[in-house]
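Hey, resending since the last one bounced:
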Amino acid sequence: MWGVEPVCSHLPIAPQTYYAAKTMEPSLRSITDEDLTKRIHDIYTSNYGVYRVRKVHAELCREGRHVACCTVERLMKKEVTRGILRAKGPRTTIPGPWVDRPADLVERRFTATTPDCLWVADITYTRTFSGWTYAAFVIDVFARRVVGWQLSTSLHADLALDALEMGTWTRRRAGRDLSQLIHHSDRLNAENIERFDTPTVLLMPRLWPRSGPRATTTIVLAEAFNSLFKAELIRNKGPWRGINNLEIATAEYID
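The structure tokens again:
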């Protein structure tokens, strides 16, 4: 058994340096890091284990913890905590004919200055043991919040319209003014719109068909959410029996 002095004689360390470090009180940074690491772990585990640095940092900021994003990244790397990475899937949206489509009211201005003035929507799909399930989501561009959603075992216009009706019902119930709302979707035409009789919502088509792999889509925000939904819930928590248990899981995920 070697003592401290013989070991230190072969290292560029003085024995008193070792004894001082052994008896030293924990630094303020180490104490802060330990507390922050515990909270990061709680946030990570309570959110499906999918949050990466940016989302964990945003949650900490909402809690009033003023911490740098690089600090969160350092602690997550130290704990080998990684979020979910999104994978590219097959192309499922093919622009339809321009017949009977509404006029373009957005013109690539995909920003919003207030809530409930611009919503975007898109549809995605999921394979379950009992067959395909389709999901439609409506997102408020200003708040980046899902205001309406719907699941179905068949892909039809009612799916998108049900999600839209859910959004308008919940927002009006909360006392929100939807008189200036523009809703952008590439799934509906004039024939489908007749079912939705509210005059406050105008439905938009895709502005142009995709012309290449780098072409920008007008509903990129909705498509980005679908990508997160597939990565964070569908692939992370699957496989799925059918629409019933997937619907419950989606409600929890959206909440």
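Confidence is low (pLDDT under 50) at residues 92-96, 189-194, 196-218.

Sorry for the duplicate.
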